[in-house]
Amino acid sequence: MCKNTLNSFKTKPLNRAYLCKSTAGKPVINPYMAQTFADKVIAFNKALNYSGPLPRGFHVLNPFLENPETMEVMQQFYFKYYNDSNKRKFIVGINPSRHGAGVTGVPFTDTKRLESVCSIKMHTAHTHEISSVFMYDLIAEFGGPGKFFKEFYINSPFPLAIVRQTKDGQWINANYYDDPALFRAVKDFMITSLQKHISMGLDTSQVFVLGKKNTQFIEKLNKEAKLFGTLTTLEHPRYIQQYKSKEKQNYIDKYILTLNGL
Question: What total of structural domains would you count in the chain?
Answer without folding.
Answer: 2
